[in-house]
Amino acid sequence: MKVLGLVAEYNPFHYGHKHHLKESLSITNSHYSVAVMSSSFVQRGEPSFVDKWTRSKMAIENGVDLVLELPFVYSAQSAELFALGAVKLLNSLKIVDFISFGSEEGNLEPLKRISKILLEEPLEFQSSLKQYLSLGNSFPVSRSLALQEFLKNDSLSQDYDFKKILKQSNNILGIEYLKALFNTKSTIKPITIKRIGANYKDIDTSTSISSATGIRNIILNKDIKACKELVPLETFNLLKEYILKYNKFNTLGNYNHIIRYLFLTENNNVLKDLLDIDEGLENRIIKFIKENNSIEEIISKTTTKRYPSTRIQRIFIHLLLHLNEVNLKELYSYRTQYIRVLAANKKGLYLLNKIKKESEVKIITKFANYEKYNNEVINKFLYFEKKATDIYFLGLNLDKPLVDMDYYTTPYIK
């Protein structure tokens, strides 16, 4: 019995995800699949387009066997922390044989080479990194430039274009998965599937497989019918159900007023304690909040080569939940002690029984059940999870507020 592990956002589930699942199962000869899926807010620092239960149902309807929640404190973070949280969770299950991730490169060899350098941090690389940081570049950009310089004379540079590899977002995330596997001493074997169709951030929907960004963009700028040919029928039907139920999809712009309010009224020490706030960045954000009305304008004006837009967006999300650096460092120090089931089919239920036998993690299907464990660590994680869910639905600005949805929503079982 081979079990395939996946890490995803399914925001929404599209043909690229379907291709990745099919190819991964085939290459690894796996019989079962388990996906670790981001919570109410995604890695780029935005609310998910549709809620986590709708996205998990999309995954099950399109062939995934079991969907588990990547805790909020990992899901709206840098690629490094996002990958670490997902790998720790997959490790904790004690049943996963493979992890498969999509990449523009489609070959593990150069990604492993880069991850090895980042893990070992040779002195020459460290020196270059400091130099590029001193020039005002962001850490990700500085790291990429330092790696390119270090790899110029590498034997693999004749076969691979490292400059191109390091500019592509899925390659970068894949490198972080490889680092996380090494750092956690994981026995899970990595594979990568070459992405086909549009790139991650590409808004072009004319290709045979469109990106999630492109699909979201066309829905927001046109209507739900415009994406019918871009996603599997199961996804399309669930998107239609969602818009009929809530009358809108969720975007960061829905939090415009509350984000601006918090930045203008919070104590400066609260802002300084947020992860990714340094060098007076909070003052730069406040300056542009005072000068601009929309969240998009604020992000655009605040963004520099040192402060990429995704970093700004994640700061906004952390402030919404009052999740500071001290909270995060404490939570990251713990091993995975629970898993939260979002959806499963019959094969997924079989996997849950296997996990129960092989692993020590607590399995949470009904949210209220976590209280019976009287576990301080689980309580801390789920405190932020509940807040994230409540704030997610706050963004939809519904006539009748939806609160405590974690308690009222049960996993989808097919």
TrEMBL record:
Q: What is its main location?
A: cytoplasm
Keywords of this protein's UniProt record, alphabetized? ATP-binding, Cytoplasm, Ligase, Nucleotide-binding, RNA-binding, tRNA processing, tRNA-binding
Return the broad EC class.
Answer: ligase
Give the catalysed reaction(s), semicolon-separated. Answer: cytidine(34) in elongator tRNA(Met) + acetate + ATP = N(4)-acetylcytidine(34) in elongator tRNA(Met) + AMP + diphosphate
Indicate where this protein resides in the cell: Cytoplasm
Q: What does the record give as EC number?
A: 6.3.4.-
Q: Which SUPFAM superfamilies match?
A: Nucleotidylyl transferase
Which GO BP terms apply? tRNA modification
The GO cellular component terms are: cytoplasm
Q: Name one GO molecular function term.
A: ATP binding
Q: Where do the annotations place ATP binding?
A: 7-20, 102, 170, 195-196
Q: Which family does it belong to?
A: Belongs to the TmcAL family.
Q: Which HAMAP family match?
A: TmcAL
Reported function: Catalyzes the formation of N(4)-acetylcytidine (ac(4)C) at the wobble position of elongator tRNA(Met), using acetate and ATP as substrates. First activates an acetate ion to form acetyladenylate (Ac-AMP) and then transfers the acetyl group to tRNA to form ac(4)C34.
Q: Which NCBIfam families match?
A: PRK13670.1
Name of the protein: tRNA(Met) cytidine acetate ligase
| Organism expressing this protein natively | Tissierella creatinophila DSM 6911
